[in-house]
Amino acid sequence: MTSTHRLRPRHLVASALLLAIAQVGHAQTADPGAARVQRGLEVLSGLTGGKPQPTFEAMRRDFPFLAEATAGYALGDVWGRPGLDPRTRQLAALAAFGALGLRPFFKIHAGYALDAGVSPDELKEVVYLITVPAGFPRAIEASQALQEVLAERADAAVGGAR
């Protein structure tokens, strides 16, 4: 056997086939990711009524990978699932964000809940429920966040009526 090893024609065909399969596989896995992100951006647009979402836009600017992952997974894969209507999804999210003490997310989603037809009294009931799994401090924090959202909405309504 010589030190130079030559590929036979059938090896060349097999190598070319493996390369082609690898390229097709890469193209197929890249496309669903783009579709997930697009689906997530559509979900976000539905939540915001087509307006830019400042928190997400800041994340897009400063942390593009995190924004893309959020759009693809949280919004596209999870939030975009068909199992819950928008009101129920918002109520569940608010309970979770309030129990975890995630005030900025609680405020954002309280606005989305109001836009989805949830009443202020229903939102207050979620705050009351937070006391059971998370305690009074988290419920009080959620109540303060809700008060801010309701006051901002009332101010906007008065300002818009002028």
List keywords for this structure.
162 residues, mainly alpha, 7 helices, 83% helix
Q: What's this model, at a glance?
A:
The protein has seven helices and no strands. With 162 residues, it is mainly α. α2 packs across α3 and α6 runs antiparallel to α7.
Order of helices and strands: HHHHHHH
**Any low-confidence stretches, pLDDT <50, length ≥5?**
10-29
The separation of the N and C termini measures 93 Å
Relative strand content:
under 5%
| Structural Rg | 24 Å
Kindly describe this structure.
The chain is built from 7 helices and no strands. The protein has helices at 9-48, 54-62, 64-79, 86-100, 103-115, 120-134, 136-161. The chain is globular and about 40 Å long. The model is unreliable at 10-29 (pLDDT under 50). It is an all-alpha fold. 83% of the residues lie in helices and 0% in strands. α2 (54-62) packs across α3 (64-79), α4 (86-100) packs antiparallel against α5 and α6 packs antiparallel against α7 (136-161).
What is the secondary structure topology, with strand pairs?
Blueprint: H1 9-48, H2 54-62, H3 64-79, H4 86-100, H5 103-115, H6 120-134, H7 136-161
